[in-house]
Every structure is written in C-alpha cells, then in structure tokens.
Design goal:
By secondary structure, the protein is of the alpha/beta class. The chain has 5 helices and 15 strands.
Length: 212
C-alpha cells in the first residue's frame, strides 16, 4: 500500500501476517534506491514489493520475532546490508553488517535517514527520520507508547519519547510497527496530558495515553 509519494520520495507499507506487523519501503524517487524497514514475515511479498527498487540496506527497528522472521530470506535474496542497534543485534537471525548509532545518517539515493535510538520497548529500539516521515517501529503508536514489561522500562521509553521524538515538528508523520499512522503533534498533546496526571507505580504493559 502506497502511503506517500512526492517528487523526492515514496513510502509504501506491507501489513504482514500472522502478527499484522508493518514492513516499510522508503525509496528515493529520482534513483530508485530504497531502505527496507523491518522484515516481519512473508518474504515473497516483501521481495515482490521491492521489485524494481535497489534496496541496499535493511534497517531493523528492534529484534522482536514479529519484525524479523523473514529477515534471513529477504537479506539473502536482496544481498542487502542489515543494520541494527548493538543491544538488539545479537538477537537477529542473521548478523548485522551495520551497527547503528544515535544520530547516524544513512544515505539512499538523494535522501538521508537519521537514526534515533529510542530504548524502552527494547534496549536497541531505533526510529528513522526521513524528512518529515518517522519510521517508529514499536516505540510509538496512535494513542500510546510501545509495550513495556516493567515500570522501569516504561520510564525509559517515556524518556526516549520526551527527549528524542516529541522534539520533532508537529507535522512529522509517524509510521508505527503495527496499525495505522499518526503525527507527532497529536501524540505529543496526549503525552503531555498523560505526564501531567498521577499514575500507578506499577504501570507498564500496553497502555493508552487517555486511559492510563
């Protein structure tokens, strides 16, 4: 599904069973060079969507199984580099050739993606910012943050959101790892309301800004 196209770039999404995880292809309109973001499942569908593009790098937002199950097959077919942040790298089904760092920039065609390290959902979770488009993995969703397994993890994730993502422009479009998109402005307003309210000391898991 094509989500965005202009004279500089396109963003396409595949929703892949069995977990309905999102896989994104972000391509330079002038050169056809692209980044593949996550490889959840159904490698044949991913490869069909990538046909006609030159995918030089597969960026893994985090190492959970529902985002990497097709990685080995897709990487083998595309002969692309795999990129991940070090804390998640050892959990991948294939070893990454590129170790990502916060603030690192990845060039593809005439475009550049900035790596934003956003620990919380996992220690090595990353987002990618391409212009006004944010590939957010499972860090941020419409209505709430990504899943956490402890209050300490939630605090780390909230800090990532406050200092790394909610400093971006309101109009930045957020493409999450599952489900539909949102914007930074919409989520920042809900986040600020959430932060201003008392919350249970044991709060974690799947939470929503409005009901937590």
């Amino acid at each position: 599904m094509l989500l965005h196209r202009d004279e500089t770039l396109s963003v396409a999404r595949l929703v892949l069973p069995p977990w309905d995880a999102n896989c994104y292809l972000v391509a330079c309109a002038q050169t056809g060079q692209a980044l593949l973001v996550d490889a959840p499942a159904q490698p044949e569908q991913i490869l069909a969507a990538a046909s006609g593009l030159h995918v030089a790098t597969i960026v893994i937002t985090h190492a959970h199984h529902d985002h990497v199950m097709a990685l080995a097959d897709v990487q083998s077919a595309l002969l692309a580099l795999v990129a991940a942040h070090p804390p998640d790298a050892l959990r991948l089904p294939v070893p990454p050739q590129v170790m990502l760092e916060d603030g690192q920039e990845l060039d593809f065609g005439n475009l550049r993606a900035r790596v934003i390290h956003t620990p919380g959902h996992t220690p090595g979770s990353v987002c990618l910012l391409v212009g006004s488009h944010l590939l957010a993995g499972d860090t941020l969703f419409p209505g709430g943050p990504g899943h956490t397994n402890s209050p300490a993890e939630l605090e780390v994730l909230l800090q990532s959101l406050a200092t790394k993502l909610f400093v971006l422009a309101d109009e930045t479009v957020v493409y999450p790892g599952h489900g539909e998109g949102t914007t930074i402005g919409r989520e920042r307003r809900a986040f600020e309301s959430f932060i201003g309210r008392p919350r249970r000391p044991d709060l974690c898991g799947d939470i929503l800004w409005e009901s937590a």
